[in-house]
Automatic annotation (TrEMBL):
It comes from Shouchella xiaoxiensis. Coiled coil: none annotated. HAMAP family: QueF_type1 (MF_00818). Substrate binds at V79, E80, S81, H98, E99. This is NADPH-dependent 7-cyano-7-deazaguanine reductase. Pathway: tRNA modification; tRNA-queuosine biosynthesis. It is an enzyme of class 1 (oxidoreductase). InterPro entries: GTP-CH-I_C/QueF, NADPH_dep_7-cyano-7-deazaG_red, QueF, QueF_type1. Belongs to the GTP cyclohydrolase I family. QueF type 1 subfamily. Its EC number is 1.7.1.13. The active site is at C57 (thioimide intermediate), D64 (proton donor). The gene is queF. Keywords: Cytoplasm, NADP, Oxidoreductase, Queuosine biosynthesis.
Length: 166
């Protein structure tokens, strides 16, 4: 039976439940927080969908809107969801191309929690008559997760999907 978490297992989680949260409008990976995975003996996916992601075009300064999908298999550490929300919000005034934003998010999350596997997919709304949907992934080197990343990359987008954010 799961007895739940006590405050000691949430060391380092400071944003959750904090009513005085400051929302950063400039890129800030330091806002990200982790907590311990209570099931490190098991593979399982954690998925986040952020349908209100915004960033700026680095050339024109115009806003770009996307749904960001993050899926990962945790190892020892997990990202705390409120800190992830604040982190993604921090891109609001950050100028980067779509492809760079998605890779930056993945790189920051790898550095933060060293997951077994992670993928980040950005589905950007069209601007100028074209949409861009960058996808990146990572699996720990020398493990089955590296093989999984290679397989998922080779088979990425092979099946048509329903796009609901445009």
């Amino acid at each position: 039976m799961n007895q739940g978490r006590d405050e000691k297992t949430l060391t380092g989680v400071t944003l959750l439940g904090n009513q005085g949260t400051a929302y950063e409008a400039s890129y800030n990976p330091e806002v990200l927080e982790t907590f311990d995975n209570q099931h490190p003996y098991r593979d399982y996916f954690v998925k986040f969908n952020c349908p209100e992601f915004t960033t700026l075009c680095p050339k024109t300064g115009q806003p770009d809107f996307a749904t960001i999908y993050i899926s990962y298999i945790p190892d020892v550490k997990m990202v705390e969801s409120k800190s992830l929300k604040l982190y993604l919000f921090s891109f609001r005034n950050h100028g980067d191309f779509h492809e760079d934003s998605v890779n930056t998010i993945m790189n920051d999350l790898i550095k933060l929690m060293e997951p077994r596997y992670i993928e980040v997919w950005g589905k950007f709304t069209p601007r100028g008559g074209i949409s861009i949907d960058p996808y990146c992934n990572y699996g720990k080197e020398g493990t089955k997760y590296e093989e999984m990343a290679n397989y998922r990359m080779m088979n990425h987008d092979m099946n048509p999907e329903t796009i609901t954010n445009r």
